[in-house]
Amino acid sequence: MTATGNRSSERRRNGPRNDAYDQTDRKMTAKMSPRTTLDKLWDSHQILQRADGASLLWVDRHFVHEGSHHAFARIAEKGMAVRHPELTFGVADHYVPTSGAPATDDIARMIRTLSENTARHDIRLFGTDDPRQGIVHVVGPELGLTLPGLLIVCGDSHTATHGALGAYAFGIGATEVAHVLATQTIWQKKPKRMRLAVEGTLMDGVSAKDIALNWIARLGADGGRGHAIEYAGSAIEALSVEGRLTLCNLSIEGGARSGMVAPDQKTLDWIKGRDFAPEGADWDRAAEAFLSLAPDDGAEYDTEAVLDAAEIAPIVTWGTSPEEALPITATLPDPSRAGSEAQAKRIAASLDYMGLGAGRPLDGTPVDQIFIGSCTNGRIEDLRNAAAVLKGRLAIVPGMISPGSAQVKAQAEQEGLDRIFIEAGLDWVGSGCSMCVGMNGDLVAPGKRCASTTNRNFRGRQGKGARTHLMSPAMAAAAAVTGTITDVRPLLKGRA
Amino acid sequence: MGGWTVEQGRAAALPVENIDTDQLIPARFMSTPRSEGYGPFLLYDLGHDADGRPDPNFPLNRAEAQGASILVTRRNFGAGSSREAAVYALVDAGFRVVISPSFGDIFSSNAVNNGLLPARLGPEEVETLLSACPAELHVDLDALTISGPGGTHAFELDPVWRQKLINGWDDVDLTLAHGPEIAAFEATRRTVAPWMWPA
Ligand code: SF4
What we know:
The structure holds 2 protein chains of 2 kinds. By secondary structure, chain A is of the alpha/beta class.
């Protein structure tokens, strides 16, 4: 991959400017210098810009979940109302049980508090009993609440996911959530623009997850810091919308707060007809606006990088940061060969936590269990990919499959995927964040090794002392049937 | 939240890369109301053994780290989750400044919203400070400098964040003062993009 930094973008920084209304004034738009997708989204949401460079941006969609309780407490303290409840949506996901009743009183209280807060402020909630419940980053796009051209925030770092449809979406903290609740706006400094192109064709058995972990491994877990990423190139165009959602979801693991893909016909086809998507004449107007979000010819980026799709192998994390990832064919790093003392220390600490030996092959590492789900890889295509490997095979380690939403669950059952999973010996459970974060009590036990389709292999992420290896759904399915971290490609031979 | 300009205090070293938000505060503590104080949860699993006993060798459990208000650490600090609780844990444990070569973006904005300075220094300068710890450091938001045994280092900070830390501004009040501009924007948006409002 080649990365070039700081291509001149000075000429577009021509001071405070308010083109919030550029959608109405096409002549003015035509005269402006070529713009990236981020530029267009930024310009159309900027209410004002302060002399110090901070911009006040309009928020089109705000998603809240159980973790938003700090923010609700804050506006309660100030006696403030929610400014636009009709643009705010609640989803129960982080603490919901995936089978049976909530595991503890504390967990039940978190779910109840969300219901109380959303009811008090007249916010629509997709709660535990709703057939449209699910993980917020699966539900938003699925319901057509996420649309191209919107600015979307949520008190969750994986909000970047929604950018796959051409929205500018980013995660925010509790103080900012309270601010959005109270004002429907947010103060931001414009991030730098990064174009990450993936050109060529992916090999069979290689997916969006592999693209993401690949670039993070190369550029580092802080490689995208300060940037909004625009994914482009022929391999991204070829990705399904589901794949693009996975890719954008992982932007934050590379340090970028947001990632996006410019809307194309595929995006439009995917959105049309969804519950909250525009209809009739509105749809026609909207669709035209959506397609106009593609970057202009000659638009400039602050940073550009290019990946060759054909070079991407299935990739697995071996350590405790998403940057600690290697192709399945590689051997584990050796701290004695590290470039610096700090690096050597990090590698040694990660290997130690993960219970792995330096220099050993990654392929063949035994796992104790698998988990398929999360906002990264809990969509229907992910389940189909796992089922393609599991069909007619038995899992030799236990595992849990949690669909990303109740609707994904219903769809999977209609396609008979649940039978494949159950017949393989895996647990088919309800939808929620589940073992991605363990807040609902679905945990990996201390010292246990889990092949997981989630997004964070941080220490203790899936439970205290848990060892997480991130990988694609197909790779996790391969780990289930072999009991080891292994290359899925041979297992796919002769299968659709 | 009050603003501040100068912090003079003890610095503790945490020479580790990639301290993520899940380590700063493990998820299981996050249903606790803030009024109970998040300080004891800070880096809990790194600082305690399997039975919950404090590990005496963990840098922040050592005697010289007690009472520290400045944390010096390696790259990619605060990567990961948007959980502001990670910042609450640091602030409630008495920290006002974290010095690192790089920070998670969301962590940084959360920090500034809670009066905690994420100060960026070059990797070499951070290594110098790490080896000087425990040390008394002087952090100056006006001058954007950190002074200590190894000399004075200039650090990088977004000017917006600098003002915010110094003034202790509450954004909501600032924003509400722009009510008319927001209303005008909203009115236009309803005309040019009516589909934006879900049916
Ligand atoms: S599935 Fe995991 S990463 Fe996604 S929103 Fe839930 S906890 Fe966060």
